[in-house]
Amino acid sequence: MVAGGSRLVRGGAPRRLAARCVAPRAPLGHGGAPAASARARRSVRAGAARGAARRARGPGRGRRRRRDRRALARRARNGERRDRARPHAAGGLAIVTRSLPTVALVALLVAAGAISWAFELRAPLRVDPAPLAALPSALGSWRGVDVPLEQNVESMLRADFNVQRVYAHATGAVVSFYVGYYGTERGGRPEHTPEVCYRSQGWEIAARRVVDAAGGDHALRVNEYVVEQGGERHLVQFWFRSHRRTGLLGGFDQAVDRLAGRLLEGRADGSLVRISTPILDGDEPTARAVLLQFALLLDSQLSAHWPVEHP
Known about the structure:
elongated, 10 strands, 8-stranded antiparallel β-sheet, 311 residues, alpha+beta, two-stranded antiparallel sheet
């Protein structure tokens, strides 16, 4: 009787069958020990290959994975803390906080919109150009003669008031002068700048710079061009002014001045002032000195003869 389960086995043949049934399984392993099946052998080989690969890679990859997992968990915890620290609006919606520059930009845009809306509601300003029309034709030793604008040029400039003159000095110097005034309702600045006008008339701008004029208690900063056409060269100086400031070069400083005028005084009128003289015998320094002297005389008179705006 052999314990092959709970059965009683008798006879020779059954005893051999029972012996085969209860024979111990051969252990799996290396060194020539027989494997139980082809599947077991493949499993052993795969496990050995994985172990060899892990040994070849070394311990660094596992450490990196653990470190990455810890970093992700730390970021998740920090995010939860920030979410808990944020105030919540009604209804349980979180209010997302923004950076200070973004908040400042939004506040500025809202303020600009409110200001623009307020100016749209106010009564339009009317321009009284009488003071500018009374600009004297005698400036020191200079004597001026009015030169009317052509109708098509005046329509293109779209200014509220224009003055164009030619001034002559006893020394023989000649200066061409133009001022175009634009009230608040027209935006306070011209649509056409000297650069556009000269080029449209066939003049080439050979040089440009910014120069300063100073005399007594009056100082002025102006744009300066050297323009050429057909062998003829002229020196041109121009600047922008408003009821608040003069010597504006255009662009950013002009935009800031207009905004300040609207906010503080409710008006943003302005003008373009341009003067020019021929460059004789290539003597550019003399032409510059003539224009700067004339610019100081003219600008002080423009300040005293600025147009009036009223509702």
